[in-house]
Structure formats: structure tokens, C-alpha cells
């Protein structure tokens, strides 16, 4: 297993307001977005905070653990500020998003939220609301997928004595396996990855101490003076191993990223230029770290979200349903076309697999396609990144999409295309 792991708990690019890249917007008809392999809710969060039009967001991921975290974070950000203040929301969000261990207050919130999510996911109607203007639609999910989600939420609130998650051992095992003989000099390996890879690829704000702490023990954000002692059960997942005798065995552990880190989603750059302190430097280094920027951005988005009252609907699609979606083989997918489609770098192969059906059936005229580049997948070398970018361009061209010049997006690990439907 490489440094990225087998499950994408967070993306490898900063959050975007996706509606900014849609040409025509109506105050009456809802915008339709399809997000594939997002990994986290950063783009959804950013988009909903800054969009006033009615909007429908369809989500397609590769693992149900990611759906579970999506629902947790969506419930959190839409909770009334009369129940949870903005600063407390921000702390819960970033801790649960990124830290292998959380404080006891956040753990208590997780248990309470899990109970509410169980009630929602077992709702026979399949639809529920996180706010008066926010509807979550799980009617397309299979019954076994809903059952699995309920099981995840049950695990989140279960006492550790009954179902333990030995997060520290799980992390240490992954790091030892990944580094091999370099484990005893791991701090040097961490520094090399930071300075020769992350810095070289554009993430110069990341502080050596915060990155080193995360690589060492999975603690990305230190936001309070409390101790982070409780395992973050949302980062647990099952991975199937094949034994020497050929039998397969599922084992719960931490199987996510251990090399890039969760800082990119909200910590690469400030979402606006309102605060000059966020760009201030000393000795040619940023004063504000990735942790500072992450907290600043999340608080800004939470604040903007309070001002929105547009109608929002978020639809979860079944796992592996891309073929059904792109062939409209099921009635529920007929006439479903999108104004924008975003694909994370872990699932771009869908373009190649579905071919022209991808664009002709589910992309509206002048639809936007945004692909996440694997720039920050540190196990990839420079020549591999160049080859993959060319492959993205070829796949997009094959489905009738034309690359658009946007150096800012490319710098931040994205390519943007327009569908030219005749």
C-alpha cells in the first residue's frame, strides 16, 4: 500500500466555489452539479457558502465511509448557530476532518451527531433536512448501502471498550510499512517530502512543525489547549487483505493518506484577500501557517453560509453507479444532465471507461468539466505527473471537451474544460 492509502478521506487540492465556473446561472432553475471522487465536502462547503441560486449537487464516491463523513460534516455546518457557535463548529470540523485523535468535547459531539444520523439514514422516506432550505436525498442508495451507513454511525458512537479503534497502532503500522528501513530516520524523510516535494509543487505555506507532527502521529490541527486523546473513529475503515493461504480477511484500521496530509483542502491559500495578515511574510516565509489559513477559511465559509437561504438539495448516488448514470439504463437517471462535473484524481479513469456516453448523456450544452490533477500525490514523479496531465487532456478531448486556459486553476492542481455539444 502506498502513501495515499486505499481510501480518500480528503482531497488533493484546495476548495473551489464551483458555480463560479458555470456560464449561465438562473435564479429559478436549479444548477445541477455532479461531484465524483471528491473525497471530502470542501467544494460543496465552499460552493454552498457563496452561491445564491437554487442548486442540486449529486455526489458519487467509491466508499461508504466517505459518504458517512460527508453526512457528518454537512449536518455540522448546517446546525443552527444557536446550538453550536461558529468557533466551536470550526474546531469540531477541522478536528474530525483531519486529526487521528480528537478532544473529549469533540468526541461527545460525534456521538450525539451519530445518533441523529442513524435516525436520518433509517428514515423510510429516504429524504431528510439539515435546515429548512437543505434537503438530503438518499432514495437512490441501495438498502444494503443504507444498512452499511447505519453500521458506521453505530460504530462512531460505540464505547471503545466494546469496539476499539487502536488509532495510534494503526498509524504507526502504516508509517513503518511505508518507510521500511527509513523509519529510524523518518524525520529526515518527512523534511525531504516537505521541502523537495510539497514546497516545490507550490505548497510553501505548510509549516515544518505542523507537517512533521502530522506525519509522526496523525495530528494535523492543534486548535485548542485541550489534549487530543480520543481516537477519531471517522477515520477508521475496513480493508480486505489476502492471507498466504488465499483466504481474504477484512481488518479495521487507518488506511488513508499518510504522506500528503489534510492541509490542502482548506489551508493552501486564503479564499479571499480581505486580511493582509494572511499573506504577510518574514524572511521570505509566510507568518500564517496552513493551520491558521484552514481555520480562517472555515470560519469565513461558515459565516457566509449563515447568510444563504437558497434552496439546496444534495443527492447521494449508489457506489459504482457511473455506468448506469452514463447509459441511463435505469429510469431514475433519464434526462439527468449537469451544468458542471468535477472529478477527483482517484476516479478520472471513469472518463476513459464511459467514453462519449459520459458527455453525450449527462453533460448539458456548454457544460464545465473540472479535473483534479494529481500534483500533490507525492509518490508520483514529475515525468509521471506530466504524462497524466496529457492523458487527462486526451480523455477530455475524446468526449468532446476543450481545454480552457486558466493558469490559476492549474497552479492549484486543476484543469478546466468545456463541453462543445453541437
Compact overview of the structure:
Keywords: Cilium biogenesis/degradation, Cytoplasm. Belongs to the DNAAF3 family. By secondary structure, the chain is an alpha/beta fold.
List the helices and strands and how they pair.
Elements: E1 31-36, H1 42-50, E2 55-60, H2 64-77, H3 86-98, E3 101-102, H4 104-121, E4 127-131, E5 134-137, H5 143-157, H6 167-179, H7 186-198, H8 208-217, E6 230-231, E7 237-242, E8 248-253, H9 264-267, E9 281-282, E10 285-286, H10 290-306, E11 312-316, H11 322-327, E12 338-343, H12 349-354, H13 356-362, E13 363-372, H14 382-398, E14 401-404, H15 407-411, E15 414-419
Parallel strand pairs: 1-2, 1-12, 2-11, 5-11, 12-13
Antiparallel strand pairs: 3-6, 4-5, 7-8, 9-10, 13-15, 14-15
Helix pairs in contact: 1-10, 2-3, 2-4, 2-5, 3-10, 4-5, 7-8
What is the terminal separation in angstroms? Answer: 44 Å
Which structural category fits the helices and strands?
Answer: alpha/beta
Report helical residue fraction. Answer: 25-40%
Main sheet summary: 9 strands, mixed
Order of helices and strands: EHEHHEHEEHHHHEEEHEEHEHEHHEHEHE
Mean pLDDT: 93
Count, helices: 15
Give the overall shape.
Answer: globular
Number of strands: 15
Based on CA atoms alone, the radius of gyration comes out at 21 Å
- What count of domains describes the coordinates? 1
Domain DUF4470: 9-101
GO cellular component, one term: dynein axonemal particle
InterPro entries: DNAAF3, DNAAF3_C, DUF4470
Domain Dynein assembly factor 3 C-terminal: 136-309
Amino acid at each position: 500500500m502506498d502513501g495515499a492509502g486505499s481510501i480518500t478521506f480528503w482531497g488533493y487540492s484546495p476548495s473551489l466555489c464551483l458555480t463560479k465556473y458555470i456560464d449561465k446561472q438562473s435564479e429559478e432553475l436549479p444548477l445541477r452539479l455532479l461531484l465524483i471522487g471528491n473525497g471530502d465536502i470542501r467544494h460543496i462547503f465552499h460552493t454552498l457558502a457563496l452561491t445564491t441560486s437554487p442548486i442540486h449537487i449529486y455526489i458519487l464516491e467509491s466508499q461508504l465511509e466517505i459518504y458517512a463523513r460527508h453526512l457528518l460534516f454537512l449536518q455540522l455546518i448546517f446546525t443552527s448557530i444557536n446550538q453550536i457557535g461558529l468557533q466551536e463548529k470550526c474546531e469540531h470540523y477541522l478536528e474530525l476532518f483531519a486529526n487521528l485523535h480528537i478532544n473529549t468535547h469533540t468526541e461527545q459531539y460525534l456521538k450525539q451527531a451519530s445518533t441523529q444520523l442513524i435516525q436520518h439514514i433509517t428514515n423510510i422516506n429516504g429524504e431528510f433536512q439539515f435546515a429548512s432550505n437543505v434537503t438530503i436525498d438518499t432514495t437512490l442508495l441501495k438498502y444494503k448501502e443504507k444498512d452499511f451507513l447505519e453500521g458506521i454511525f453505530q460504530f462512531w458512537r460505540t464505547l471503545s471498550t466494546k469496539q476499539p479503534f487502536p488509532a495510534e497502532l494503526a498509524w504507526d503500522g502504516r508509517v513503518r510499512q511505508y518507510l521500511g528501513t527509513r523509519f529510524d530516520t523518518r524525520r529526515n524523510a518527512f523534511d525531504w517530502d516537505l521541502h523537495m516535494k510539497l514546497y516545490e509543487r507550490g505548497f510553501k505555506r505548510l509549516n515544518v512543525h505542523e507537517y512533521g507532527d502530522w506525519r509522526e502521529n496523525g495530528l494535523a490541527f492543534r486548535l485548542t489547549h485541550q489534549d487530543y486523546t480520543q481516537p477519531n473513529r471517522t477515520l477508521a475503515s475496513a480493508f480486505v487483505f489476502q492471507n498466504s493461504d488465499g483466504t481474504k480477511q477484512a481488518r479495521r484500521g487507518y488506511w488513508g493518506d499518510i504522506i500528503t496530509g489534510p492541509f490542502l483542502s482548506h489551508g493552501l491559500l486564503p479564499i479571499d484577500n480581505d486580511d493582509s495578515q494572511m499573506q504577510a511574510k518574514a524572511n521570505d516565509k509566510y507568518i500564517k501557517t496552513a493551520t491558521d489559513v484552514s481555520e480562517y477559511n472555515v470560519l469565513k465559509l461558515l459565516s457566509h453560509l449563515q447568510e444563504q437561504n437558497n434552496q439546496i438539495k444534495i443527492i447521494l448516488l449508489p457506489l459504482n453507479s457511473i455506468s448506469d448514470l452514463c447509459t441511463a439504463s435505469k429510469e431514475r437517471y433519464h434526462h439527468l444532465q449537469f451544468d458542471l462535473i468535477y472529478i477527483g484524481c482517484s476516479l478520472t479513469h471513469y472518463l476513459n471507461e464511459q467514453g462519449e456516453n459520459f458527455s453525450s448523456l449527462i453533460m448539458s450544452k456548454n457544460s464545465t468539466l473540472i479535473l483534479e490533477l494529481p500534483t500533490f500525490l507525492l509518490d508520483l514523479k514529475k515525468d509521471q505527473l506530466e504524462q497524466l496531465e496529457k492523458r487527462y487532456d486526451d480523455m477530455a478531448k475524446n468526449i468532446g471537451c476543450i481545454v480552457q486556459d486558466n493558469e490559476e486553476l492549474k497552479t492549484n492542481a486543476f484543469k478546466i474544460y468545456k463541453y462543445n455539444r453541437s
